[in-house]
From TrEMBL:
<comment type="similarity">
    <text>Belongs to the YicC/YloC family.</text>
</comment>
<keyword id="KW-0378">Hydrolase</keyword>
<dbReference type="GO" id="GO:0004521">
    <property type="term" value="F:RNA endonuclease activity"/>
</dbReference>
<feature type="domain" description="Endoribonuclease YicC-like C-terminal">
    <location>
        <begin position="174"/>
        <end position="283"/>
    </location>
</feature>
<dbReference type="Pfam" id="PF08340">
    <property type="entry name" value="YicC-like_C"/>
</dbReference>
<dbReference type="Pfam" id="PF03755">
    <property type="entry name" value="YicC-like_N"/>
</dbReference>
<dbReference type="GO" id="GO:0016787">
    <property type="term" value="F:hydrolase activity"/>
</dbReference>
<dbReference type="InterPro" id="IPR005229">
    <property type="entry name" value="YicC/YloC-like"/>
</dbReference>
<feature type="domain" description="Endoribonuclease YicC-like N-terminal">
    <location>
        <begin position="2"/>
        <end position="156"/>
    </location>
</feature>
<dbReference type="InterPro" id="IPR013527">
    <property type="entry name" value="YicC-like_N"/>
</dbReference>
<keyword id="KW-0540">Nuclease</keyword>
<protein>
    <recommendedName>
        <fullName>YicC family protein</fullName>
    </recommendedName>
</protein>
<keyword id="KW-0255">Endonuclease</keyword>
<dbReference type="InterPro" id="IPR013551">
    <property type="entry name" value="YicC-like_C"/>
</dbReference>
């Protein structure tokens, strides 16, 4: 199936103590690249989160935003700078003895000084919160994938509609080929009659007509263009990236259409060629702006 490279997925998980929300936004990228926007203390979980996303998303640039509500998300602990505190106390005792002062040490004041004591967050999440975060990330990735699939289905219908138009225009062009050949033959005979009258070599005329018709023959281009249409329809069903392949096929289809336009000097065929170019431009614009990729659903 066809999947779009762009999409958005959002999921939330909640427990008695925490509420976790994960938002994923995807844009086109050659490989899978995941960027996180979350508190720094959660950085050690990035590898697990990336793995959870990669189970469902194979390509794209993924921006992951995480918000957490509830009780303190991380554990806190006291950190004391014992070396500095020891040095400070030794100095105060020496100063007290040197200047015959009363003991000025006050442990409570010492510990309130942020130079000696601070409260820091631990580097590990509460196990309950970690579980919620992984679950929410997986659910958000699933919803992102579902959105990309839904958009991809719309793209496939869009492509099919335009491919049907191309096929119809080709059929119309084929119906005008006998008329075009007859017109070429009549023009050549009329020119010869106007220049030399009835006295001309019939065999030579037939030979010239054959050469001219061969130069203006567009059956081969029509056949190749029809083959490209079939390839296009088959490619969007393959289990591999298809964006670049479609780009190449569109270029080849445009080349065949341009050749038909340069060979066929027929008003109706020229009009159909213009319509073909317009339709192919619509296909190319869709493929470039909303790049698509086939992915197996995990």
């Amino acid at each position: 199936m066809v999947k779009s490279m762009t999409g958005f997925g959002r999921a939330g998980k909640q427990s008695e103590n925490f509420k976790v929300t994960v938002e994923l936004k995807a844009v086109n990228h050659r490989y899978l690249e995941t960027l996180f926007r979350m508190p720094r203390v959660f950085a050690y979980l990035e590898s697990k989160l990336k793995k959870s996303i990669a189970e469902q998303i194979k390509r794209g640039r993924i921006e992951c935003a995480i918000t957490i509500e509830g009780n303190k998300a991380t554990k806190e602990k006291l950190v004391i700078n014992w070396d500095l505190a020891d040095e400070y106390i030794r100095f105060m005792r020496q100063a007290t003895q040197r200047y015959q002062m009363e003991d000025a040490l006050n442990i409570q004041e010492l510990l309130l000084d942020p130079r000696f004591l601070e409260i820091v967050e631990s580097s590990e999440l509460d196990s309950e919160l970690e579980h919620l975060l992984l679950e929410a990330t997986f659910a958000a990735a699933r919803r992102l994938d579902e959105m990309r699939e839904a958009e991809g289905n719309e793209l496939a219908l869009h492509f099919k509609h335009h491919l049907d138009t191309v096929a119809e225009l080709l059929e119309a062009i084929q119906t005008y080929i006998p008329e075009m050949e007859s017109t070429y033959r009549d023009k050549l005979e009329n020119r010869l009659l106007s220049y030399v009258g009835e006295d001309f070599d019939k065999a030579l005329v037939l030979s010239e007509i054959a050469i001219m018709l061969e130069k203006s023959d567009i059956n081969e281009e029509i056949e190749r263009l029809g083959s490209h249409i079939k390839q296009f329809s088959h490619i969007i069903l393959r289990s591999e990236p298809i964006g670049r392949k479609l780009d190449f096929l569109i270029q080849e289809m445009n080349r065949e259409v341009n050749t038909i336009g340069s060979k066929a000097s027929h008003l109706e065929i020229t009009n159909r060629v213009v319509e073909l170019k317009t339709t192919l431009e619509k296909i190319a614009r869709t493929n470039s702006k909303r790049r698509v990729i086939f992915q197996a659903v995990c």
